[in-house]
Specification:
By secondary structure, the chain is α+β, with helices and mostly antiparallel strands. The chain is 34% helix and 25% strand. It has one domain (3-148): 2-Layer Sandwich (Beta-Lactamase), CATH 3.30.450.40. The chain is built from four helices and six strands, in the order ααβββαβββα.
Length: 155
């Protein structure tokens, strides 16, 4: 997908989410809505979901796509790299990422965005996989960061 088309699609998704998320301030409802919309509007998304910290573990929450790993091994893989660094991580080829956790061998690239609560603490991550290599870039990171900010809006 070319950059302008991708940007326009994300802009439309943001518009839709602004309307949809105004109906509830419940974080779980918001995450489920975000995941459903992203997964069905972005044709290169293969697995789309959230992992949240729960008693020191990253545990799957809302997702769409193939069955997920329920708990991710501590301090291993792309999701933990994002939590530990506090930054988004874009991986063009997951098979070359040290310690990659393969929940589904069909995934070839990945982007992980930290999710923060209203106080700015990292509580989990948005994890998106693609079967295409190099599927994600700075445009995805920019818009997905804005979208994750909609889960716990600062009041």
């Amino acid at each position: 997908m070319d950059q302008e088309k991708k940007r326009q699609r994300y802009e439309r998704i943001l518009e839709q989410l602004n309307g949809l998320l105004s109906k509830s301030d419940d974080p779980d409802a918001r995450m489920s809505t975000i995941i459903a919309l992203l997964h069905h509007k972005m044709d290169y998304y293969f697995w789309t979901g959230f992992y949240f910290l729960n008693r020191g573990e990253l545990v799957v929450r809302s997702y769409q796509g193939p069955v997920a790993c329920q708990v991710l091994e501590k301090n291993k893989g792309v999701c933990w790299a994002s939590v530990n660094s506090g930054k988004s991580v874009i991986v063009p080829d997951v098979h070359k990422f040290p310690g990659h956790i393969a929940c589904d061998s069909r995934s070839n690239s990945e982007i992980v965005i930290p999710v923060k609560d209203a106080a700015g603490n990292i509580t989990g991550v948005l994890d998106v996989d693609s079967i295409s290599f190099g599927a994600f870039d700075e445009t995805d990171e920019l818009f997905l960061s804005r979208i994750t900010g909609m889960i716990h809006p600062v009041k």
